[in-house]
Amino acid sequence: MTWDRVAIVEQLLDQRISTAEPPATRRKADEPVRDGSDLTVAAALGLLEDQLASRQMDVAARELKKTNRSFYTIGSAGHENNAVVGARTRIDDPAFLHYRSGAFFMARARKLAGSTPVMDTMLGVVASAEDPIAQGRHKVWGSRAMWIPPQTSTIASHLSKAMGLAFSLARARRVGVATELPDDAIVVCSFGDASANHATALSAINTARYAVRMGLPMPLLLVCEDNDTGISVPTPSGWIAETYGNQPHLRYVLADGEIDAVWEAVGTAIDHVRSTRQPAFLHLRTVRLWGHAGSDAEQTYRSLEQIASVEARDPLARNAARLIELGATTPEELADLVRETRERVLAVAEEAAGRPRLETTDDVVGPMAPYHPDRVRARAAEPVLPAEARREAFGGTLPEDATTPNARTLAGCLNAALADELLRRPELLLFGEDVGRKGGVYNVTNGLAKRFGPARVFDTLLDETSILGIAQGAAQIGLLPVPEIQYLAYIHNALDQLRGEAASLRFFSSGQFANPMVVRVAGLAYQKGFGGHFHNDNSVGALRDIPGLVLAVPSRGDDAARMFRGAVAMAAEDERVVVFLEPIALYHEKDLHADGDGGWLSDYPAPPEVLLPGEVGIGGRTEGDADLLLVSYANGYRLGLQAARQLADEHDLRARVMDLRWLNPLPFEAIRAHAAEVGSVVVVDECRSTGGGVADAIIANLAEGRIGRRLGSVRAVDSFVPLGPATSAVLVGVDQVVAAALAAVDRHRAGGAAR
User: Which of 96, 98, 110, 704 matches a 20 to 30 Å C-alpha distance to 662?
Assistant: First the structure.
């Protein structure tokens, strides 16, 4: 018994071609392959050539792997009928592809003059820096010219942003933003039958159907490439058809059988989506040859009989025999084409294997997180509107002229900043749960939907995955999304949409695709009268861990407005993904030290005042010598200022208090400069003690630089936040900050007497 199944399948293809019997009459190139079909002989032979090339790229990848020159062996063998989808959609129909999409890629490349899809693919397989899309960072299907944004995992995580782009096509036209796509473009998204069970797939498909129910356009072609297997787990017979064959607001089309029947079914699905602007679920029957990847020993979970049964259903062999039997070609011509394709692809693979690879750190990370502060400042300084027009837009009174206290809380300043950015940038969209009609749970978006209309400020369904998917799709066609996640804890429901998708797009496309956005998140702890861990989430570790993501955390209203302008300008200019984390407990806070002192109110800073990463705030002892540097952010900054007052009044201790403002990247340069000047440092970290916040990174950076005489920190307990007054048992309080400060300057804990 042999396990060289690649050779066996190759032999079966040759046998099928040699034994097929052509009819007496040969059909011409411009004739249909059979009466009543709109598939011409020329188009069918083009499909077969693309399928053969895809198959041979899989063979070549495995051959190169034998000599350690290939790094990717997940192949498309058995899925070659997705070439029909590539052939029947247009080059300006965005395509988010499954990793078994070699034939689709070949068929679409046929529409682009001068393209070299075999070389492009093999450069990716060998991780060459000359790969035109990912430049050796990963093997992806992608092409800017062919409107194929690269996907990495494709375990359903790409469905949400495909849905988001389909949703946003009409939205861009409604708000007057031109895109490079035609009005009748559709979005293609392919995935496997196992992925169809993933929560992200269910989310995206549900949202697509929901949009139709709400009367919104959703031109999305969902292509389920069903090979009956998820690595080693078989999909139950009939499961895909049972699950998706009778869903309201989702057209189901089965594509199975001969190549001409598949052609017609695919055309039916595409025509439905393009003409009705509603989604369709194309159920494309396939098989999976040769295991999940080169390292997958499928004989451990399939018998030889089962493997042979799958190989007997090879669509490539079936298509070749079908075209011979229909008179589209002859066995001799196809045998020559197979031989020539094998030789050509193997030669290209050998050439690709010798091309250079990435070597330096800068080469690898270059496209991930560009930052041009001078250009960002210039972008932030672009005029909002002429002065009188802006005044009129604000109802006759500019926010910086406001006299009511509410206009100068953090929430009030943010509301005005959102309005200014909506006025400044017609491409900006603001959306999320309860963002529109209600004006936000905490009133931050109050009045914006009425002022700017439902096309630009709108409510979504309750699904964070879809909210971030809409943001990614919108951003890829030139819109500037500002989605809101209602609570920090909720973002974990959809974190991979940031970690695996949004933040990685520039990296895996070498900057050719981008999805700039500013994700507003209400979060952190210290809410009074409303609690529990789901609404008082005090951990930012999962966000700080995402490469290239900017994390902004304002504490005061004036800072929030300036930082938000900076965040939007970074997204607009450098195409960055920014999370703007807003401390809920400070939204409506007015006082700092005593009731009625108004110490937490601030005037709205008129545009174009802006704050960017690295720019910190300093309070407390801002001039002259200081005994201590307190470093914090958000609620912790307010606690630090309160502690500084107590330290001065009760212990004659002068404390300088730093507001970090930006938690990713951390402003290490500013921290080091102030720490070196002051000496003793205490980091006040309101997040959980074990990796939830920033204290570890700051203390480590200072220690490695041998900066500071005494270093310390005070952090929240490693616990979920409880309900009610028990929060004080786990969250950082002023007394703890004072105690840590005294310890850091070598004073006795008890009584505060100097040594």
Answer: 704
